[in-house]
Design goal:
This protein is of the alpha+beta class. It has 9 helices and 14 strands.
């Protein structure tokens, strides 16, 4: 009887260990990229570790994180690959592509429209970020995004790269110079002052340009988004109008909102009907009549760009 119990105990331990290992391993997958090419995860891992991030156009923390991920992709270009996977539905793919192209992000963009990889990793909340080693082992994962999370992500990445370098002394793993420098020792009070100057004063300095249209920096830190207080919705033109079934009756706009709440430049991210007199143009004309409570950072009004869908009135 004891022998039988021991056998079952061993089997249980083996199965439990196998389950835990599987939970920490990324299975191979194939998804389409922004140009419609089929990309294999095994090919991406041949270069080195990957940072895997799941996002969507409707997720505000996700879109705030994308610029930081792009910086890491550029900084560690010879060592890793940053892969951002959109879980948007097929009807929103055009908007996702527009965001990536308009910001000129250089990381690899893939689309998981059937939720294959999302379900594989049991992702319920986004943004969800992983660091995956070349042997498919997930060495770090994090859910959500707030300013400063990218610092922790880079620290975890450097841990992996340094460990890889120790295990393969013959390989020449050259980390970016600034990542090897020890952090300066700064008193907490002084560091807080520097953060405030960096985030608030420098941003205000950059944006204090008396509403120069289109001159607002693309990446601005803010705590509160603009709040519309006056809305003007475009109307459908007279006559028959054919809208494809796979498109929502809305145009997604990238809007420049100044410190006084007025609207500056307006660009189309998700098109409904382009060309002179088209629905896109009508949406832009309507948006330029909107008025906002401006975005704020630490209580101070600032100018920013942000994305917003605009629907047509019936």
């Amino acid at each position: 009887m004891k022998i039988i119990l021991s056998v079952f105990t061993i089997i249980f331990i083996i199965l439990s260990t196998t389950f835990l290992i599987a939970e920490k391993t990324l299975q191979d997958f194939i998804l389409e990229d922004i140009d419609g090419n089929r990309v294999k995860s095994t090919e991406l891992l041949k270069k080195g570790p990957i940072i895997l991030d799941f996002w969507a156009t409707w997720c505000k923390p996700c879109t705030k994180e994308l610029p930081e991920l792009d910086k890491l992709h550029t900084k560690y270009d010879t060592l890793i690959t940053v892969v951002c996977i959109s879980i948007d539905k097929p009807k929103s793919m055009a908007s996702a592509k527009a965001i990536i192209k308009s910001q000129q992000f250089s990381f690899v963009t893939l689309f998981d429209i059937n939720k294959e990889v999302q379900n594989m990793l049991n992702i319920k909340l986004i943004p969800r970020t992983f660091i995956v080693n070349t042997d498919n082992t997930i060495v770090y994962e994090h859910t959500g995004y707030k300013k400063g999370d990218e610092v922790t992500l880079e620290e975890e990445l450097n841990k992996l790269l340094n460990e890889t370098s120790k295990q393969s002394p013959t390989s020449q793993v050259i980390l970016p110079v600034d990542s090897l420098k020890p952090p300066p020792i700064i008193p907490v009070s002084f560091r807080d002052s520097i953060n405030k100057i960096t985030i608030r004063d420098s941003v205000n300095f950059l944006i204090n340009t008396d509403n120069l249209i289109g001159k607002t920096p693309k990446f601005v830190i803010y705590d509160e988004e603009p709040i519309p207080i006056k809305k003007v919705f475009p109307e459908y033109p007279e006559g028959d109008l054919l809208i494809p079934d796979d498109k929502e009756p809305e145009v997604i706009l990238q809007v420049e909102v100044f410190k006084d709440g007025s609207v500056g430049a307006v660009k189309v991210l998700g098109s409904l009907q382009s060309g002179p007199g088209g629905l896109d143009e009508l949406a832009i004309q309507a948006m330029k009549q909107w008025k906002f409570i401006p975005a704020k950072n630490e209580g101070q009004p600032i100018a920013i760009w942000f994305s917003i869908p605009i629907k047509f009135s019936d």
